[in-house]
Amino acid sequence: MAIWLLLLATLEAVNGHAALIYPPSRNANDRFLPGFTGGQSLSTSCNCGDSTNGCPQGIRASGGGQPCLWFSQGCSIGCDTCTGIGSHTNVSLCNSSMLPTLPTWAWTMNLGAQPGSHQDTYRFNPWRAPGSAPVTDACGTAGGTSPSQRGPGDAIYADTPFATMGDRGSKVLAPAPSGVIWSAGQKVEVWWGIRFNHGGGYQYRLCPAHAPLTEECFQKLPLEFVRDQQQLQWNNGTTLSINGTFVDTGTLPTGSTWARNPIPRIDFDSTSSGQPSGWTGCKMEGGVPVGPGCRQFDPPCSWDRGWYPQPPASTSVDVEGDCSGDWTGGVIRDQVVIPSEIAPGDYVLGWRWDCEESSQVWNSCADITIID
User: Which of 132-146, 274-288, 297-311 has the lowest mean pLDDT?
Assistant: First the structure.
């Protein structure tokens, strides 16, 4: 144990992104290890701006450790595989001719661009055709790519006894019984939390625990959302019901439902994140993003009037508002329906987040049991 802690202490910290919070996932199995408790991290904290000292995690505590660092990098719609390289791109990474299928009303980034134009810089990224981009593993890859590609696109992972950089989640993450038991036909709660916001949208799905945990398996059992039950919950216990945006056209599996990420991204200037030429209204001032053009759409809580750097930083592009940006102040809560005809048994709940700002897909896998 002492040896791997010494090695981890030399790793640089970078931003993570998002993860399943409830049910607790296999990807968060390192949250009880030394160096990962109380919101701390030996890579980058999934719940706090201060990886060294941590923070009160509140309802996000089950998402401690490194679950937000299991993803696939370099994944464009219409491609067979991910490249493992790069994250922010305005080209297809396999020269695919596939056109986006996402309705414009479900976009989360660059909302003013003309679809298909050269200014539509995110058109090849996963959310523009939900479910169509490949992944390297349906439970995520530790650090998003191989060790040789460490760094760009926040590709980093602190090696632990459970996993090392580049490991495939479906291969190395042992079952981690969550104690969650659901009934066939039941409406059940699921939560996820953001660390670094890339817009886009997400889906929940199931795969029998005895089966290989492949994308093909999860695509056979996508779960339907209870569309009037989306909520935000803050770490202080406050909840707010919001009007979710759900998409079931142009999705894969065909006709399956995906939910739009309801938390707006906050950019840090008018050019660096793929905004079209001539875009104005967002700039860096005093070390923080300033201007109405930084936030991609209106936040879902009416009292969100601005943003601030993640503590303890006083200047940073890593900013959040009360329900916007890199929002670590709470979780997005959904209800999904367990199919009434499903066979009882042990299952793995898969959560997949297709990003729009980047060519990345995040995955988490959690163990649950279904009864009649």
Answer: 274-288
Structure tokens at 117: 């134009």
- Residue 171 corresponds to which tokens in the numbers above? 């291969």
168: DSSP letter: B
Rg of the chain's alpha carbons, rounded to an integer?
19
Written as six digits, the tokens of 69 are 């660092």
Query: CB count, 10 Å around CB of 3?
Result: 7
Residue 91 token pair: 């080209």
The sign of the dihedral angle between the CA atoms of 291, 294, 297, 298 is negative
Cα separation, 50 vs 112, in Å, equals 35
Contact of 65 with 350, CB cutoff 8 Å: no
Q: What pLDDT was estimated at residue 153?
A: 65
Among residues 122, 142, 146, which one has the least CA distance to residue 69?
142
pLDDT tens by residue, 62-117: 999 999 999 999 999 999 999 998 777 888 999 999 999 999 999 999 998 999 98
Under 8 Å between Cβ of 354 and 200: yes
| Paired tokens of 325 | 């940006």
Token pair 């309801």: residue: 262
The count of C-alpha atoms lying within 13 angstroms of the C-alpha of 103, restricted to the half-sphere facing its C-beta, is 10
